[in-house]
Amino acid sequence: MFKYRHHDAHKKYDDHNKSHYICLLTLISLVFFIVMGIGYAIYLFVDAMPSSNVSGVHITKSLVLAVDGLKGNLYSDSSRGIKDWIINTDETNGFEIKHPNDWEVQNNANSFFLLKKYTDIRSRNSSLASAIEVGSISLGESESCEAAAGKKSIKWDPDWKEEMINGRMGVRTGKVKTAEGLIRDVIFWKNEEEGKIFYLEATYYTDKSTEFENIFKNVISEFRFL
């Protein structure tokens, strides 16, 4: 009889442990799915935002970077001082551009892609330091990069020569002053098939532009056509 009682007690102990284990496993699973659900909801919310401050809703920089990291949209190269740059891919217009995460992406009907850097986001009208733009200019069959430069208010320099830049023949102006008094640095690539000039340009709105010139140098080196 003692043997059977011992067996029953042991069985009840095992059943209790199994029940406890199942409850614990259920609780862990529930917590896991709640955390995953919250994380996915945040991912969808941030992914739907065109910038880090939309309709008065402020999304912290660290959260945005975390989401971009999960999406594989961050790039770093410590040898050139590049850390957590954003990767933007435009399959429609056929290019990929990487840029610092503290530059603001803005909508612009006149170009494919526009970045702006402000020294003080609270007074944007007076603190615009630099801008980087990607776009195209439609030309006639006989027109060239010189005509495109004219449309950018840049006086053509005959010393500018075509060279291979990022896998395509193009012309780079270097830092020049436009007719409006702006300082620009532009690369023009001619697309013979589409009769357009594809361009990548930087505009500097401050005399202290060395930092932004170095950034544009890295933007150029990482820019690629798809």
Going by CATH, the architecture of the domain at 75-225 would be 3-Layer(aba) Sandwich
CATH class of the domain at 75-225: Alpha Beta
Number of strands: 13
Oligomeric form: single chain
- The pLDDT mean sits at 80
Strand content: 25-35%
Low-confidence stretches: 51-58
Structural class category: alpha+beta
**Spatial gap, N to C terminus:** 82 Å
Layout of SSEs?
Layout: H1 2-47, E1 53-54, E2 57-58, H2 61-70, E3 74-77, E4 82-90, E5 95-99, E6 104-106, E7 113-118, H3 124-127, E8 128-138, H4 145-151, E9 163-165, E10 168-177, E11 183-191, E12 196-204, H5 210-222, E13 224-225
Antiparallel strand pairs: 1-2, 3-4, 4-5, 5-13, 6-7, 7-8, 8-12, 9-10, 10-11, 11-12
Short précis:
By secondary structure, this protein is α+β, with helices and mostly antiparallel strands.
Could you walk me through the main structural features you see in this protein, from its secondary elements to its overall organization?
The structure is a single chain. This protein is α+β, with helices and mostly antiparallel strands. It has a domain at 75-225: Mog1/PsbP, alpha/beta/alpha sandwich (Protein Transport Mog1p, Chain A, 3-Layer(aba) Sandwich), CATH 3.40.1000.10. The protein contains five helices and 13 strands. The strands form three sheets. The protein has a seven-stranded antiparallel sheet with strand order 6-7-8-12-11-10-9. Strands 3-4-5-13 form a four-stranded antiparallel sheet. Strands 1-2 form a two-stranded antiparallel ribbon. Strand 1 and strand 2 form a beta hairpin. The longest helix has 46 residues, at 2-47. 17% of the residues are buried. Residues 51-58 have low confidence and may be disordered.
